[in-house]
Design a protein that fits this description.
- Helices cover about 30% and strands about 15% of the residues.
- The protein contains four helices and seven strands; from the N terminus they run ββββββααααβ.
- The chain has helices spanning about 50-55, 60-75, 80-90, 100-105; strands at about 5, 10-15, 25, 30, 40, 45-50, 115.
- It has a five-stranded mixed sheet with strand order 1-3-5-6-7. Strands 2-4 form a two-stranded parallel sheet.
- A hairpin with a 3-residue loop joins strand 5 (about 40) and strand 6 (about 45-50).
- Helix 2 crosses helix 3 and helix 2 runs parallel beside helix 4 (about 100-105).
- It is globular and about 45 Å long.
- The two termini are about 25 Å apart.
């Protein structure tokens, strides 16, 4: 598990799951897929948005937060996360912030599959 990860009470995490830096997993969640950095997760592998409050508490700059927000929404609207992350990283100009690069590079590795954006509600966009 990476740095600055928060697990709510009773959350169950399958062995070998990767959890990215700054992720927050809600109580009683069931995690069997990889959890990207800087996201909020609840239920069974469902991403509800970015952990904006966590990024603010860790004093991540507003420009870095804006950059990861843009990449998050672009990435999550497409079906193939690995392909989309590769396209975002290869375009000109490419993202340059450490937080965003960590987020995008997370999708280039791993064999378990990734948590998906919840379709029940729109993702959190403000914190």
């Amino acid at each position: 598990m990476a740095k600055d990860v928060f697990l709510g009470g009773g959350a169950a995490v399958h062995q070998f799951v990767r959890i990215g830096q700054g992720a927050m997993i809600g109580g009683l969640s069931e995690i069997s897929l990889d959890i990207p950095p800087q996201v909020l997760v609840s239920g069974r592998n469902l991403i509800s948005g970015l952990n904006l409050i966590g990024m603010k508490r860790r004093k991540i700059s507003q420009s870095a937060v804006s950059e990861i927000k843009n990449c998050f929404f672009e990435l999550m609207k497409n079906g193939n996360l690995k392909k989309s992350a590769t396209e975002i990283l290869n375009r000109k100009p490419s993202p340059s912030g450490d937080v965003t690069l960590d987020f995008l590079n997370f999708f280039l590795t791993g064999n378990r599959g990734f948590a998906r954006l919840s379709k029940k509600k729109s993702p959190q966009v403000d914190g």
